[in-house]
Amino acid sequence: MDNHFFKNLEKKTGVNMKEVLDLANSLQNANFKDENTVRGVIRRVSQIANKPVNKEMEDKIVNSIVNGKEKLDFGTISKMINKK
């Protein structure tokens, strides 16, 4: 994709595409059964999306992913964060 596409997306969403791509790259070999890894990803997504996640919501998301109820991807976490 071209740079123009990402710039337009950044303007519309306020989300830095470089951060999103860096996060996506970091997820490729991550262990999603590890609670600390999942918490780190949730905090990073929260920061990128500028949506604070309280401890209770973080715990719910972590438990859901670590126990295999949800797959770990940006979309799943984003939906869970936006439900709060």
Q: Which properties best describe this structure?
A:
mainly alpha
Brief overview, please?
The protein is an all-alpha fold and 84 residues long. 69% of the residues lie in helices and 0% in strands. The protein has one domain.
Give a verbal description of the structure.
It is a single chain. By secondary structure, the protein is an all-alpha fold. The chain has one domain. The chain is 69% helix and 0% strand. It contains five helices and no strands.
Topology:
Elements: H1 3-13, H2 17-27, H3 35-49, H4 55-66, H5 74-82
Helix pairs in contact: 2-3, 3-4, 3-5
Organism: Metabacillus indicus (Bacillus indicus)
Pfam families: SpoVIF
InterPro entries: SpoVIF (IPR025942)
Classify the secondary structure makeup into a structural class. mainly alpha
Percentage of residues assigned to helices: 55-70%
The rough form would be described as globular
The helix/strand series, from N terminus to C terminus, equals HHHHH
The stretches of 5 or more residues where confidence is low (pLDDT under 50) are: none
What fraction of the residues are assigned to beta strands by DSSP?
A: under 5%
Q: Note the total helix count.
A: 5
Gap between N and C termini, in Å?
33 Å
The radius of gyration over CA amounts to 13 Å
State mean pLDDT (0 to 100 scale): 80
Number of domains: 1
Please identify the oligomeric state. Answer: single chain
What about the largest sheet?
none
Strand tally is 0
